[in-house]
Amino acid sequence: MEIVVSGIRPTGNLHLGNYFGAIRNFVKMQENNNCFFFIADYHSLTTHPTPADLHGSVKRVLVDYLAAGIDPEKVTLYLQSDIPETAELYLFLNMNAYMGELERCTSFKDKARSQPENINAGLLTYPTLMAADIIIHKATKVPVGKDQEQHLEMTRTFANRFNRLYHVDYFPEPVAYNFGEELVKIPGLDGSTKMGKSEGEGNAIFLSDTPEAIKKKVMKAVTDAGPTEPNQEKPQPILNLFNLMNVVSKPETVAHFEALYNSCQIRYGDLKKQLAQDMIDFTAPFRERIAELSANDAYLRKVVNMGAEKAHESAARTVRDVREIIGFKVF
Ligand code: TYM
Fold first, then answer.
1. What is the strand order of the sheet 141-143 is part of?
2. Is there an atom of ligand 1 within 6 Å of 142 CB?
3. What is the pLDDT of residues 156-203, one digit of tens each?
4. Which of 273, 279, 294 is closest to 211 using CA atoms?
């Protein structure tokens, strides 16, 4: 049985990017693997949330996880901060993580460029914390979106380096994984190539969005004046709308609008109306469950406690071994 680990940062609700990049795979993988899925609340501290915001976001993501079909009886569903062993392993890994390789990491460079006033050490060492999350359960598969590929590469580097340094074969090599397919990147509605919360309001469709909110966002999505020649290549914002349609609409619907585009007869208003409706239908079952679960704090508490207990067992075993390997022996 494979050991599967993955996490999501609590920054508001889950959106279609998270869903198609990660959660959908979690739900498929929970059937036949030993899965550990968590809410990366330590990671979210790089952006300095207020205590109330942090707590609210963690609850929202937990509810969304459950609403999307993660079964806490089948997987270990937990909060990263409930397993402080992760912080200890992160410390050990940081001793062998080099400034150069951390500074070269694309996500660090992007953040350093976009928020020069907050380039903190947590951002720099984000990949070592992520490696700790993964190898603390000795994972082999990590279901993630395409944007996390480089972090997985670094995780393998840190795991292999530990093995080499201490002449052990302790940590397996984890790989980024998408159920039988290429890793995906779901585009945003603002013409950008990635759907994400930090990309700005209106760019992402959340699982919890009301039908009205979805309609509003989709109708505002960036388009252009339309094709002028048959079979013209699609510019990014238009390609994005088609890619989004590909994940929520029927293949016939996509083919219909492709044909209209290729013959220069497309009306973007019609395409958007259809896309909005298909997104509303797709998210409807999640919306209902989100409302139910949000009102059930007792159940959420039970889920989190159960997850913490199971995750702790696995994490404590690894950290005990790692301490021994490093030479922190029991007298
Ligand atoms: P995060 O919280 O940004 O995103 C969570 C997951 O959703 C995927 N994702 C997307 N996939 C496709 N298209 C998109 N537009 C899109 N937006 C998000 C991400 O690839 C990710 O799989 N560093 C991680 C969280 C993390 C983690 C871990 C993941 C912390 N420790 C250990 C795996 C294993 C992150 O920030 O993901």
1. 76-79, 34-39, 3-8, 141-143, 175-177
2. yes
3. 999 999 999 999 999 999 999 998 789 999 999 998 889 997 767 789
4. 279
Please give the Cα distance from 77 to 71 (Å, whole number): 8
- Backbone Cα Rg of the chain: 21
User: H-helix or E-strand containing 140?
Assistant: none
Co-location of 160 and 13 in the same domain: yes
Q: Tell me phi and psi for residue 168, to 5 degrees.
A: -130, 165
Active-site residue flag, 250: no
Q: Which of 84, 80, 68, 66 is nearest to 36 (CA)?
A: 80
Nearest CA to ligand 1 atom 36: 9
Give residue 264's domain range: 197-291
Q: Judge if 179 and 320 occupy the same domain.
A: yes
Same domain, 257 and 321: no
Which atom from ligand 1 is nearest to the alpha carbon of 5?
34
SS3 content of the chain, % helix, strand, coil (to 5): 60, 5, 35
pTM attached to this predicted model? 0.96
Q: Is 234 a catalytic residue?
A: no
Active site residue 194: yes
Is 60 close to ligand 1, i.e. is its CB under 6 Å away? no
Distance from Cα 213 to the centre of ligand 1, integer Å: 24
Average pLDDT for the chain: 96
> Does residue 191 belong to any structural domain of this protein?
no
> Are the CB atoms for 286 and 54 separated by under 8 Å?
no
Please indicate whether residue 85, judged by its CB atom, sits closer than 6 Å to ligand 1. Answer: no
